[in-house]
Amino acid sequence: VGRGAAxxxxxxxxxxxxxxxxxxxxxxxxxxxxxxxxxxxxxIEQDLVPTKDGHLVCRHENDITATTDVAxxxxxxxxxxxxxxxxxxxxxxxxxxxxxxELKTLRATERIPDVRQRNTLYNGRWxxxxxxxxxxxxxxxGEKRGRPVWLYIxxxxxxxxxxxxxxxxxxxxxALRAHGRHRKGxxxxxxxxxPSSIQRLGELGLRxxxxxxxDEPSVRPWDFVEAGDTRTTADLLKPEGLEWxxxxxxxxxxxxxxxxxxxESGKLGEPTTLVRDAHAEGLAVHPYTxxxxxxxxxxxxxxxxxxxxxxxxxxxxxxYF
Length: 321
Ligand code: G3P
Ligand code: CA
Prior knowledge:
Layout lengths: L15 E2 L12 H9 L4 E8 L5 E3 L22 E5 L2 E5 L7 H4 L27 H15 L4 E6 L2 H6 L4 H11 L9 E5 L2 H9 L6 E5 L7 H6 L5 H5 L1 H7 L5 E4 L5 E3 L5 E4 L2 H7 L3 E2 L27 H8 L1
This protein binds SN-glycerol-3-phosphate and calcium ion.
């Protein structure tokens, strides 16, 4: 992966620290981002959602129930609510109902503490990072290392937030411009499961590489649902779908089984034609997400429950590919 129009000049394969080093530290914290960088990740991934007062913060979703200690804050008990996000009814606490100052009083927690090296040891250590803080951190780390720190930035629920008057793309464009990261060749990829978000980022003059994420085949991107567009992900995976995507994006981010077929037991096996088809259109292919439970990797990254015994996981991955 990493070949094609996007990612030229970067090493192949690229290792993206997905939500940082999320197998070892609570996701989307500076603990997680810093560890991923120190472990040798080429790129660090952020998911973006907004606060009530319009700041971009790094969370995988706007529901912060599972990844913060918000439930332990009696002053926010009344903020717990039920709402519909992209057609799903959810109950919890949501970033768009908190100001940044309020969110900063919370601490990040591990989402799934019982999996592999994950644990609760680091709960409470880090705040929720803002995207501005990440940009400043990347600049400092880049200067220290003598090479830019690449970021892989995702807009989460962009149509939902646009309807709330909290458009993600304008805020992202402003932040990237302030750091000179809007230009062609700037050290960041932009990604979204909603193609219209990627189109909007292009309209806002962002020339850095942009990637359309592809969900499971039966899923309709939420912006398609809102616009009455009946196409599903399966349609976007076809050559005509890829031809449409290359009109405004540089790459696709398919779900892993779309590039390596999965049998009934979930075991991954033979490559599909998707990489070839996408490369024929000039699209880069950045699949998500490589985990050691995907049995096609003949590597065992499970090194027990010692949270600091992570070893050279990324080096092993690179050597394998
Ligand atoms: O980079 C692709 C990946 O980030 C999409 O999956 O749900 O972890 O954001 P998700
Ligand atoms: Ca993501």
